[in-house]
């Protein structure tokens, strides 16, 4: 049973590797769709293969960011979340302005519906929102990082600035998941690019440049 599962995962990953190397197929598929989907990985694992397998089953064509890293531009960034944001921003610059873009993490995400359903759901929701809205999953981790290292608000913050910034976050009476999950969002390309650029600039301005090797 386990052997079958392992073989299946290897088989799926093998197919995906083949697909990824067929640039004309990738370009053709991407051009036909108003919805562009991307994920980021540093390395292939059984978890990422399970995620890619579910994408494959639902006709989701994933742009896999992170593996191709000319000049090791991303590797010098030690913090994975910052590396991901930089990769997303760079990739978004090559996506057409009229596209709707979905980004999901790779190790804990399964695809359960077709891209058409995702696109239709986005149109339904975004009809009531302005075009520059980015819809993202909320989480309890404080992110993007502020002046101190910890992700969660805590008494270990050494200066009051993070608390002042925290006060700027929108509150909700229904949920304690107030913070952005960088690995789960959907938006029109210009809005997504603006947010990634903002996150990147925000983190660059901070001391993460030295702490995390962000260049
Ligand atoms: C979008 O809205 C239409 C009209 O209300 C509805 O029929 C359809 O099921 C919705 N689609 C999705 C994917 O939410
Ligand atoms: C949240 O609670 C406050 C105080 O009870 C109330 O004034 C406000 O309208 C609520 N907001 C939402 C979005 O429910």
From TrEMBL:
Signal peptide: 1-15
Any Pfam family: GT_PLOD
Keyword tags: Signal
PLOD1-3-like GT domain segment(s): 54-146
CDD domains registered for this protein in UniProt: GT_LH
Protein name as it appears in the record: PLOD1-3-like GT domain-containing protein
């Amino acid at each position: 049973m386990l052997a079958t599962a392992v073989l299946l995962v290897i088989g799926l990953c093998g197919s995906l590797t083949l697909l990824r190397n067929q640039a004309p197929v990738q370009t053709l598929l991407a051009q036909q769709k108003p919805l562009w989907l991307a994920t980021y990985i540093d390395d292939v694992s059984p978890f990422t293969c399970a995620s890619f397998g579910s994408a494959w089953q639902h006709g989701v064509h994933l742009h896999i960011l992170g593996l191709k890293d000319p000049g090791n531009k991303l590797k010098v960034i030690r913090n994975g979340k910052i590396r991901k944001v930089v990769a997303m921003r760079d990739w978004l610059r090559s996506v057409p302005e009229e596209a709707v873009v979905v980004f999901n993490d790779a190790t804990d995400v399964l695809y359960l519906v077709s891209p058409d359903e995702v696109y239709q759901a986005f149109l339904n929701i975004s009809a009531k929102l302005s075009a520059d809205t980015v819809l993202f999953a909320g989480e309890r981790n404080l992110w993007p990082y502020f002046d101190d290292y910890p992700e969660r608000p805590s008494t270990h913050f050494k200066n009051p600035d993070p608390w002042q910034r925290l006060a700027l976050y929108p509150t909700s009476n229904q949920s304690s998941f107030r913070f952005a999950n960088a690995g789960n969002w959907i938006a029109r390309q210009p809005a997504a690019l603006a947010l990634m650029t903002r996150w990147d600039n925000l983190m660059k301005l901070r001391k993460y440049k030295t702490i995390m090797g962000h260049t």
